[in-house]
Amino acid sequence: MNTVADLFSENTGFREGDLLELSMGPHHPSTHGVFRMNVTLDGERVVRLKPVFGYLHRNHEKIAEGNSYLAAMPYTDRLDYLAGMTNNWAYAHAVEKLCGVEVPVRAEYLRVILAELTRIQNHACLCGFLVQDLGASGTPLMYAFREREKVLDLFEAISGSRMMGNFQRFGGCREDAKPEWLAAVAKLVAEFPSFLDEFEELLAGNEIILSRTQGIGVMKADQAVNAGVTGPVLRSTGVAHDLRKVDRYGVYSRFEFSVPVGAHGDTYDRYMVRLLECRESLKILAQALKDIPDGPVLDPKAKQKGLRPKAGEAYGRIEGPKGEIGFYLISDGGPNPYRFRIRPPSLINLTLLEDICLGQTLADAVAVLGSIDIVLGEVDR
Most buried one in 59, 159, 234, 293, CB count within 10 A? Predict the structure, then answer.
């Protein structure tokens, strides 16, 4: 079905005047950025939904092909303003594979700490925004933002910036963590469970939230796998796929943690999986803080400026908060990438939006979109 006229011509039973076409966005409070949903409604039921995006296209990939490898690093912060640290890491990982660069063990631990802090602030914000989408304005989102601010304080202290850290380098990290910074992280790790307890007690069993999310926007496991969906959205369908376990990149093989999965693939499971993942991230953080070794955080032999990798190609991927974030690079031996491509989880996870919204009410479609967790800077690039 491509147009409303098709709905009439395909013997669907709809008559002229039965359906309403509604363009939501690109500036709409429920679409989480400059994103548009062209929705066709039969009463309140969605019979067609076409995502429209591209309003934030910044030519990121082509710009990277015209600049040095290092110059592309700050752009990766801007893919997803909630996940700059993990985006940095995924790009550095790709360049390190391309060049055969080793990363010092302390830097690997520091990357894990920053990545898990990124995950818990991303998931906390998602849960706050999702409840906001359900109509609970104010309090839950402000609770989530309160916790996010604590993580951003830590990012600012170590990188100089709250969101655009530009912190990772090829072969390690730009700066080392001071003991007082690590102590501040340990304090957050000790206090964060009380926030999760409070959030769960307030919301997880709430009758309205249960009725608005359980059985709504169901995604099947085979649907998700066939579409390439990753991250919490995939795991909510029951598929325990997590690159921290599958690839065991960095030093993740040293930590004990579980991969929470859902049973139904609905909006509620996508919400709960993220809360449970926060608890697993805290376990990883506690272990990393306990075991982080002394040593350098940057390989002194790793070249940053004037880098000219040998001709070849590499794909580096990590488990970002929203799923698999990957960078594919081709080098022709020159000072800038011959090809620079990004595998963004927000875009891939968005591809099933229409499938899981058909038959739902318009109000439910807003909640379903919120549970996917997209950032348009990453969708459009």
Answer: 234
